[in-house]
Design goal:
Structural class: mainly alpha
Strand order of the largest sheet: 1-2
Order of helices and strands: HEEHHHHHHHHHHHHEEH
Helix content: over 70%
Strand content: under 5%
Distance between the termini: 69 Å
Length: 379
């Protein structure tokens, strides 16, 4: 019999996508609700990585060279940078997943074990049902839907007689670009599970706070709270380098998409092209896709941090009535320990993923766009 609190359908789809993209070199067993070693999955990741090393550049440049782009050298340089970013991010993500596969498997199993423990005896509906829906929305609309829209609205093809072939090649390239974002999907899968765990722990603490056995049970819940934080932070550490590179990529591609849209529109208007509006659908859809990745990453990390800190009001209820009872003293020690713990999602100690990143990206994008437009006008 399958254990309670097995992954939902949306979560299983996310795991399948992570496995297909080579991020997980092991398999998920629904009967045990655990990740297990699999030589087949590991070899599949190795073969997929080698395949991408050989054919990735050909797919990218094959699709890029068959499409007309705005005639400016700055756009060409950015296209080259786009390939360098994409190629390295996908390779590093796959290599990191292979080299840290066992550690990642143990951490994910630890997260599932905590999830089972904290949800034991509670109905599944007590979880936040909006989180799987948000994950499904991201997978369908931003990971796949926008890439399909981009493929349908490539600019004028060099050879119209083979436009279908070029569309197919371009779609493969866009799926290749979309595969970079699987590290974000893994991060969201972990963060959303952590959020639901914290939701249950905080609710139980509120229910137990006035009970006769409240101190001891709250100590046990807080230990689960701490274990969740350690597991999530451990998984973040495993994927920190891909996430770091993706954050740089998102800033670059957002600036590039806006600049590409501007130069494409200006060039078509000057040439009197009737397809000016159709030609900008591709970069706009690409911009929406990548901006959506940033939003989901930031909102998930911010929600995780806020939910983790909500246990503090439960501990504060004991402030002012601490006695010499060992249980009450333990609560006081937990309060001190909580104040020294950092629940923020930090990437290599360089920055914190929270809502301030959105403001920073908007401000920086505006500044760089002014510089790029001025350079373009002087060409």
């Amino acid at each position: 019999m399958a254990p309670k609190c097995v992954l939902s359908f949306v979560e299983k789809c996310c795991i399948w996508l992570l496995t297909a993209c080579g991020v997980l070199s092991f398999r998920y067993n629904a009967s045990t609700n655990r990740f297990e070693k699999s030589a087949l999955h590991y070899m599949g990741c190795v073969v997929g990585t080698v395949f991408y090393i050989v054919f990735g550049p050909w797919i990218y440049w094959g699709s890029v060279n068959t499409v007309l782009h705005p005639s400016t050298m700055l756009n060409y340089y950015m296209i080259v940078l786009q390939f360098i970013f994409m190629y390295n991010i996908i390779l590093i993500s796959r290599i990191k997943s292979l080299s840290n596969g066992e550690r990642l498997r143990q951490l994910l199993n630890g997260l599932l074990a905590i999830r089972e423990q904290v949800l034991q005896g509670l109905p599944i509906v007590s979880c936040d049902q909006d989180l799987p829906q948000k994950l499904l929305l991201k997978l369908i609309v931003f990971d796949f839907g926008m890439m399909v829209l981009c493929a349908f609205f490539f600019r004028t093809f060099v050879e119209h007689s083979e436009s279908f072939l070029y569309s197919l090649l371009g779609f493969c390239n866009l799926m290749q670009v979309s595969s970079m974002n699987v590290a974000i999907n893994l991060l969201l899968f972990v963060l959303y599970n952590g959020i639901n765990i914290y939701l249950q722990i905080n609710a139980r603490c509120n229910d137990l706070v006035y009970g006769s056995k409240a101190p001891m049970e709250i100590v046990q819940l807080y230990l689960m709270h701490t274990d969740t934080s350690l597991v999530v932070q451990g998984i973040v550490e495993v994927v920190s380098i891909p996430i770091l590179l993706l954050c740089i990529w998102y800033f670059f591609i957002i600036v590039f998409s806006v600049f590409y849209t501007y130069t494409s529109l200006v060039q078509d208007v000057r040439a009197g092209s009737g397809d000016a509006l159709l030609n900008v659908i591709n970069p706009i859809a690409f911009f929406i896709s990548e901006a959506g990745q940033v939003y989901f990453m930031v909102s998930g990390a911010a929600m995780f941090t806020n939910r983790a800190r909500q246990i503090m009001p439960c501990l504060n209820l004991y402030t002012g009535r601490i006695t010499d009872v060992p249980g009450d003293q333990a609560i006081e020690l937990l309060t001190i320990e909580y104040l020294s713990r950092d629940y923020a999602i930090r990437i290599k100690g360089l920055f914190t993923i929270d809502n301030t990143i959105l403001f920073a990206i908007v401000a920086s994008t505006t500044s760089y766009m002014i510089i790029l437009v001025q350079y373009y006008l002087q060409e």
